[in-house]
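Internal tracking record. Fields below are filled automatically when a chain is submitted to the structure queue. Please do not edit lines marked as system-generated. If the sequence contains nonstandard residues, flag them in the REMARKS field before resubmitting.
Queue: standard
Priority: normal
Entity type: single polypeptide chain
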Amino acid sequence: MMFRNFVQYEVDSNVQLDKKYYQDCLSSQSRVDKKYASSKQSFKQVRGNAKPPLTEIKEVTQDFVKVIQLDEPHNFEIYGEFTHRLSCQFPVMLGDFSARVLSVEDDAAIVDLGDAIWPYTHYPTDLFL
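SYSTEM-GENERATED OUTPUT FOLLOWS
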């Protein structure tokens, strides 16, 4: 019985100490916010936790495309069934290479491979959108 009372006392003591530290932290954040004219930390408890930032949206579509090299170095024109779904805002993967979309038309798109050297000439390849 005595051991149980001791454990209960220790748990209650630690909970009260944690509560005190938490209140001290909130009051410190409030003082800092008042001093530097910011309300970010003061109203954090009212707002609740912010959602994590959206860092990536990924839509995977696989398509066989025909890749034709253009006159400009590292620029290629690709023809495929789903090329109209490409966007200039998002990169694509041509085989093992990451490419930037320069323009999109109904049946074709122009991509830039950057400094990568395209090892093929006119062979179909996988395109990951």
